[in-house]
């Protein structure tokens, strides 16, 4: 068994060395102790990160399925969906799809070998949901903050808003997929990631601008505009109480903060990889673990968002039940009071 493990690690180490054009000649002479130690450390780091993410991935998958089942049950009961519920359902489907794409990282540190064309197709569909989750937050902002009436009227049709976001996501995904260069060698065997390792630096720059920078700056600007111009905040300042103003919007703020932190780490590592690789300052033994870690951080953000959405649905469901019970408790008292008033008027 030990010999099989050593042979397996040596095979993986040779794969790392074959991927590294600059150091491949050194490996033909044999593996030195320092290289083997670094390789084993990288393998252990990736394995531990995968184990930790498996907890988040399982919880996110369960929460996503629970949300879908609850929405299907409400639909069968002919309950009316609000626009906010439909947008959250769209976000749930997108985050759940991203978690399914994380299955490519569950097998790490093993390699996922496929053709360059197949990897580009995988990256294309992954980036559709990646962009969708970013820009759907802007739509949610316009639904929960009511200080821009013109935009709210434009987004009055919920399904049109979702289709518009999906169209933008597909367009940007086509753009960055065309930058991967998979069409030059479509049948070449590659170690596939959701962000192809063979993609040039322009890929990471364009993805950073359209997938992170634009949505983040847009939401930040809208929040600042809300804080300055909103009547709700002005009234709260008069009463020295701003908690009520933000109470119905906490779910949006939580989703935005979680997505921002996770995707900030993801994009920083993405830019760092291509920058260092362009200057040949980083070896494959060093950046391949970073590739897996950044993807797991981004996928963990989707898992946390699904957990918060599930909690939001549960709290609102309990609030509706409590309101219904309070209404049933108060109704007899109203009827008794009405009868007493009528008898008093007759006397």
From TrEMBL:
Top-level taxon: Eukaryota
Task: Tell me where it mainly resides.
Answer: membrane
Q: Which CDD domains match?
A: 7tm_classA_rhodopsin-like (cd00637)
GO molecular function annotation: G protein-coupled receptor activity
Q: Where are the transmembrane segments?
A: 50-72, 84-104, 124-145, 157-179, 205-228, 249-271, 291-312
Subcellular localization, as worded in the UniProt entry: Membrane
Instruction: Please give the SUPFAM superfamilies that the UniProt record associates with this protein.
Output: Family A G protein-coupled receptor-like
Domain (G-protein coupled receptors family 1 profile) spans 60-271
One Pfam family it belongs to: 7tm_1
Q: Which GO terms describe its cellular component?
A: membrane
| Alphabetized InterPro entries for the sequence | GPCR_Rhodpsn, GPCR_Rhodpsn_7TM
Which keywords describe this protein according to UniProt? Membrane, Transmembrane, Transmembrane helix
This one is known as G-protein coupled receptors family 1 profile domain-containing protein
Q: What is the lineage of its organism?
A: Eukaryota, Metazoa, Chordata, Craniata, Vertebrata
């Amino acid at each position: 068994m030990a010999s099989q493990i050593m042979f397996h690690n040596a095979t993986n180490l040779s794969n790392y060395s074959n991927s590294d054009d600059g150091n491949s000649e050194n490996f033909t002479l044999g593996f030195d102790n320092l290289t083997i130690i670094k390789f084993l450390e990288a393998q252990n780091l990736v394995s531990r990160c995968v184990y930790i993410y498996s907890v988040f991935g399982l919880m996110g998958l369960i929460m996503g399925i629970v949300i879908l089942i609850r929405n299907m049950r409400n639909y069968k009961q002919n309950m009316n969906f609000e626009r906010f519920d439909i947008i959250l359902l769209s976000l749930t489907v997108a985050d759940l799809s991203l978690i399914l794409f994380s299955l490519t990282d569950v097998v790490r540190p093993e390699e996922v070998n496929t053709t360059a064309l197949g990897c580009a197709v995988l990256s294309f569909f992954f980036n559709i949901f990646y962009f969708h989750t970013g820009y759907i937050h802007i739509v949610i902002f316009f639904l929960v903050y009511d200080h821009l009436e013109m935009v709210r009227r434009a987004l009055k049709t919920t399904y049109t808003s979702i289709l518009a976001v999906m169209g933008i996501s597909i367009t940007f995904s086509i753009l960055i997929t065309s930058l991967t260069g998979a069409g030059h060698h479509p049948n070449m065997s590659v170690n596939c990631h959701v962000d192809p390792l063979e993609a040039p630096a322009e890929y990471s720059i364009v993805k950073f601008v359209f997938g992170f920078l634009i949505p983040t700056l847009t939401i930040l600007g809208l929040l600042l505009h809300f804080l300055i111009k909103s009547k709700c905040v002005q009234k709260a300042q008069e009463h020295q109480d701003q908690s009520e103003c933000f109470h119905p919007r906490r779910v949006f703020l939580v989703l935005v903060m979680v997505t921002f932190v996770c995707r900030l780490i993801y994009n920083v590592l993405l830019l760092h990889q291509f920058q260092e690789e362009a200057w040949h300052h980083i070896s494959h033994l060093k950046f391949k673990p970073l590739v897996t870690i950044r993807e797991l951080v981004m996928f963990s953000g989707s898992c946390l968002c699904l957990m918060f959405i599930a909690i939001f649905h549960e709290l609102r469901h309990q609030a509706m039940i409590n309101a219904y019970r309070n209404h049933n408790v108060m109704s007899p008292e109203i009827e008794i009071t009405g009868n007493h008033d009528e008898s008093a008027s007759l006397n």
